[in-house]
Write a structure and sequence with these properties.
By secondary structure, this protein is mainly α. Helix content is 49%, strand content 7%. A 3-stranded mixed sheet has the order 1-3-2, with no helix packed on it. Helix 1 packs parallel to helix 4, helix 4 packs across helix 6 and helix 7 packs antiparallel against helix 11. The longest helix has 19 residues. The protein starts with 19 loop residues before the first strand and ends in a 5-residue tail after the last helix.
Amino acid sequence: MRRFGLQMHIGRDGGKSKTEALFIPAPRTTSTNADRIKIVVDSTDQGYVTFNRKFTYLGSIITDDLEDSTEVRARIGKANGILNSLNNIWRSNGLSLNMKKQFYIATIVNTLLWGCESLTLRAADQKSLDVFHHKAIRHVLNISRWKQKDDRITNENLRKRLDGIALIQETLEERRLDWLGNVARQPDTNLPKRLLAAWTSRPRNNCGQKLTLRDSNAAAINRMLIYNDIPAPSKECPSKTWVPLTKEPSLWSTMIYKRRNDRLKQKSHEERKKHTQPTST
């Protein structure tokens, strides 16, 4: 660091350094305490840098197992705090459900899904987000968990009551696909575009595979193609099968939001049908 004219905080006399080091073990291995022994950087002054199992960088938590579960739990905790701090909005009689929905998306959903385009979520992480999403909707609507159970209100009906708000998984995939379209339209020399189709020549093991970002992207693309009545090419979803579709931004956007638009059309149709029903005399 000194060679580049930089300074960093180092620990001394048993204290922890502000500069953090993170050891990431090789695949299918775990780290030990021996791998996290402090690094002596100034032998004359006994200065050192300590290791951590996780640290926060640009608002995101990076862990030594490179999984996003810790990040998801932190996001849910932050979103829950914001949810409770906005009770004056949720309990206001002067705001429509649509306005409360927009507040909810702008605050709670954006806190949950900030930077979600690069998250690789396990099934347990997705379930945690889904559970919190419906818990938050109940809070906005002032419906207790017991009332939902006693009145047999399904989660689908719960979302309909909040002006037909989408599933958290649907919103996550919309944002991921929108980002993929933007990257796919970049010049081939741009680093994000090059990394999008990058791979390693090392063969993967036959079992115990961890979900990768590429797997998450391919799954989202395949679900979108199937919903738009386009046959999904394969589980891997090679770029040559979907990148040409992104060249026309309006077409790509229409495909991404078709599910949401169909749901809003159905909601509008149900409301019109409800208002046109003859009243009994």
